[in-house]
Write a structure and sequence with these properties.
The protein has about 300 residues and is of the alpha/beta class. It folds into two domains: about 220 residues, P-loop containing nucleotide triphosphate hydrolases (Rossmann fold), CATH 3.40.50; about 70 residues, Lrp/AsnC effector binding domain/regulation of amino acid metabolism (RAM) domain (Alpha-Beta Plaits). It contains eleven helices and 14 strands. It is globular and about 75 Å long. This is ABC transporter ATP-binding protein. Keywords: ATP-binding, Nucleotide-binding. InterPro entries: AAA+_ATPase (IPR003593), ABC_transporter-like_ATP-bd (IPR003439), ABC_transporter-like_CS (IPR017871), P-loop_NTPase (IPR027417).
Length: about 300
């Protein structure tokens, strides 16, 4: 038995002359949360559809839960859950009725189905809303209902396509706690997102740009292996300072965060603070601090289009 829930090699999808995903290699360990981070249109959703067998690849090989995809996609469908960005349940049905319908689709026997529905409603805080129509619920409640439906049949593998794009930060945080509960029970989760803080919660992730994976691995390792040091500057006239910094070949990126300027200095510069104070005499050492890298820094250094913005 493989230790990986997903194995993909050279996965490519073309639409005419347009390449949506190019040469994707992927290994997702069982029982982990793996993320795809990138802007809209970078190929995240196309990748998910190929991995589930909803879309055939142009080139490459895919194995999911030991099954060859798309050839064995029918066998895979009962072992996976899929939650889309857009709410896809029935607004006119109640919480109970939606879960009842999903249970019937997956062929769960009636007695077992009733028990499972009750378990799911309690787990996702919906037991007091069993008779409420889905269309009358808030965004966070609908999100919990969608996750309850996607895991109704206790799938081995759960695909989530930007599942928190329409909910507030508190509901996003609670949602991720529920994902870690699922992961602890042995479910493998693959999630797409364009939120940096969400991607940092994953055990491992791939950063995508224009259909190509630019970096992949555990978030901490990606941050440690960046080819830059991060310097934060507190000074006056930050906008002018930023423009001057960006003209230096040693600077990868500069972005303002409130009263601070966050500068990514290439690691070829051994002492970035000494370099900055010598290059910009108006800066004093006490105004500069080395900072911990963030996943946004990794994204900036890994992709071509955002680096000097």
């Amino acid at each position: 038995m493989s230790d990986y829930a997903i194995l993909a090699s050279g996965l490519t999808r073309k639409f005419g002359d347009f390449t949506a995903v190019e040469g994707l290699n992927l290994k997702v360990p069982k029982g982990s949360i793996y993320g795809f981070l990138g802007p809209n249109g970078c190929g995240k959703s196309t990748t998910l559809r190929m991995l589930t067998g909803l879309l055939s690849s142009t080139f490459g090989e895919v194995e999911v839960l030991g099954l060859s995809i798309p050839r064995q996609a029918e066998l895979l469908r009962r072992r996976i859950g899929y939650m889309t960005q857009k709410f896809s349940l029935y607004d006119d049905l109640s919480v109970f009725e939606n879960l009842q319908f999903i249970g019937e689709i997956y062929g769960i026997p009636a007695r077992q189905r009733r028990i499972r529905i009750q378990e799911q409603m309690v787990t996702y805080g919906l037991d007091q809303r069993s008779r409420q129509r889905a269309g009358e619920m808030s965004g966070g409640q609908r999100q919990r209902l969608a996750l309850a439906a996607a895991t109704m049949h206790a799938p081995d593998l759960l695909f989530l396509d930007e599942p928190t794009s329409a909910v507030d930060p508190e509901n996003r945080r609670e949602f991720w706690e529920q994902l870690f509960d699922l992961c602890d029970q042995g479910t493998t989760i693959l999630v797409t997102t364009h939120y940096m803080d969400e991607a940092e919660r994953c055990h491992a992730l791939a950063i995508m740009e224009s259909g190509v994976v630019r970096a992949d691995g555990p978030p901490e390792r990606l941050m440690q292996e960046m080819g830059v040091n991060v310097v934060e500057v507190e000074a006056s006239q930050l906008r002018q300072l930023k423009e001057r910094l960006l003209k230096c070949a040693e600077v990868r990126s500069a972005a303002q965060l409130g009263v601070r300027l966050r500068v990514l200095v290439r690691k070829e510069v051994a002492d970035p603070i000494a370099w900055m104070t010598s290059r910009f005499p108006e800066l004093r050492p006490e105004q500069l601090n080395l900072a911990r890298p963030s996943l946004e820094d990794v994204f900036v250094t890994s992709t071509g289009g955002e680096g000097r913005q």
